[in-house]
Amino acid sequence: MRSSRGFALFGVLVVLAVIAMGLSVMVVLADRLLDEDRVAAVTGELEEIYRAVVGNQRDTFGYIGEIGAYPASLHDLVVNPGNAGWRGPYLRDPRVGGGMLLDPWGQPYEYWVVDGVATSDRLAIVSRGADGLSTNTAADPNIRTSYTGVEPYQAAYFSDPKNADNVVFPRPDASRADTLNVNTDSSLNIAINNFDSNSQVNAFVPACPNLFTITVQNTSRETNEVNAVGYAPGFQVTLPQGTYRVFVTSVVLPTPPVNDRIVVFPVVPVYRTYNVTGLDSSGTDQFVLTMTNKYPVDDIVVAQFGSNQATLNPNETEAIPIKACATVNVKIGGSVVESFTMPYGNFSKIAGATAAAITIDNNLNVTVNVYRNGLFIGDIKKNKVKTFSDDLVAGDLITATRADNGVLVKTVTLVAGSQTAAVP
Question: What is the structure's pLDDT at 392?
Fold first, then answer.
């Protein structure tokens, strides 16, 4: 009997052991399946966060399209940090803890963005994976400026064991640094033609510089991306992706001639031509043209609508009264060698000077506007580099102002050839 009972007890123990082993295997399988579910989920979540920042860039423009800049933290996609134009939350059912967006393993997502480059920005969203390890040791990886360690496209990133199960979106290629590039800006190019009823013109002509001002307002945040900048032919500004209204005003017109809606897609330039009436250059205000003759041996004659106004010897400078929007011809021996339109305001012009160019590195955290002798020639986004060369000559005065408040931040007098300058 004792032997039977012992055998029965042994059998029960065996059965329990088998059950325990089965349960252990089931737990392992369940954990494995759960991890597989998490891996499957994290890729979709990474893309959702990425698209919340930049949109699909076709008919949605994400956080950038409404705020005009990258979020300082991924948490800003869920809770408004106080920015005008915020229309979030930009994520559905986000996983939030400790003021951070969390991945399926309960670890904070990492946010890497570099927009201080001359061309494309770089953007990636990272999950630390099941082991929760990463070479990024930031206390709050959701914050863009907190990213530390190896950048998520370099070969050293992928070879480090801490990053072995990290998931990066977009999927990077260690052999190509541009796989994480993203473009969120494009250019707005505006041409204004003005019908000049002056009997010597009687036609649509390119609007004279500074006769019009241009304001561009973002429709989401209702703030001005471009604030009353004087128009000059070749007008071009850089805008973040999104929707805008363009307003054109003039000191000589009682009502604004243009109120236009535009959509800015990344990379694709926007072109607008506006035809405006109401100009008679025979009766416009008179301003001072300060003309300098840099032709080495030739005298020049300065003419307004064909009527000679002054003669300048080589290296001579003279202040000449000229009507705004008049056509000014510079002649040598009766032949026209240069021609331009007198701006609406005092203006300096150098005839016969050597061509020049300038490359400006904007180190400020705001856009700067760049002017040549008081005429707007373009803008430079924060932390970007841009070269200006069209129609520039040695002796031109280049100034740069902050776009947000108009404060002067740089002044450079051009020399022949190419040169560089940094702001500030």
Answer: 97
